[in-house]
Amino acid sequence: MSRQLSVRSRATAALRASAATAAPDPRLARSLVQWLLLGLAALAFVPAARGATGIGWLPFWCLVAPLLSLTVLYRHRLAAACGALLVARPRRRRGDQARRLAPVRRAGLRPRQGGLGKAGTGNREPGLVAQR
After folding, report:
1. What is the mean pLDDT of the chain?
2. What is residue 17's predicted lDDT score, i.e. its pLDDT?
3. DSSP assignment string, 32-88
4. What is the dihedral of CA 38, 41, 42, 48, to 10 degrees?
5. Distance between CA atoms of 51 and 65, rounded to whole angstroms?
6. 19 pLDDT exceeds 60?
7. 83 within 8 A of 16, measured Cβ to Cβ
8. pLDDT digits over 53-81, tens only?
9. pLDDT band per the 50, 70, 90 thresholds, residue 40
């Protein structure tokens, strides 16, 4: 069973390494970036391109579609960059951990030795009683 797991983990590691090193087609990436920039310029400078509501089919095809295509194209690099940011950031210490303090002994008081506590009340919690 452990041999099967190690073979499976080696295979997934090799697949991840080959997928991470494979570079996307630069012509496709360049055309997607150009499409995104032209769509951004069209929506910024041509008010009719935005449509009546601003959330229509043309803003989708001008901005959202090329942006999603770029994220799919560079998904391995984005995942590696996000993982590196999460791992590289050191954890911030918030100071020392709170510690319990020793109980304060007041002069003239001694620890209760159990029993019923005050006569007839049924209070069985331990505490401090005045010395007589």
Report:
1. 75
2. 60
3. HHHHHHHHHHHHHH-HHHHTTTS-SHHHIIIIIHHHHHHHHHTHHHHHHHHHHHHHH
4. 170
5. 17
6. no
7. no
8. 766 788 888 899 999 999 999 999 888 88
9. very high
Residues in Cβ contact with 128 at an 8 Å cutoff, skipping those fewer than 6 apart: 106, 109, 110, 111, 112
Length of the chain: 132
Cβ partners under 8 Å of residue 43, min gap 6: 49, 50, 58, 59, 62, 63
Using the structure block, give the residue that is written with the tokens 């002994």: 105
Mean local confidence (pLDDT), 11-34: 76
Specify which residues 128 forms β-bridges with. 111
Helix, strand, or coil (residue 30): helix
Task: Give me the amino acid identity at 58.
Answer: L
pLDDT of residue 8: 57
Q: What element of type H or E holds 17?
A: helix 2-21
Beta-carbon count within 10 A of 66 CB: 20
